[in-house]
Amino acid sequence: MANATITKDEQNNDIVIRLNDIVSVTMNSSNPESNTLFAGNKNDPSNASLKGYRVSKNGTIHLPLIGDYKIEGLTVEEAEKGIASALVKYVKNPEIEVQITNFKITVIGEVNKPSTFTITDEKVNLLEALGMAGDMTVYGKRDNVLIIRNEDGHKVMKRLNLNQQETMNSPYFNLRQNDVVYVEPDRSKAVEFSTNTRIMPMIIASISAAAVLVAVLLKR
Question: What global pTM score does this model have?
Answer without folding.
Answer: 0.71
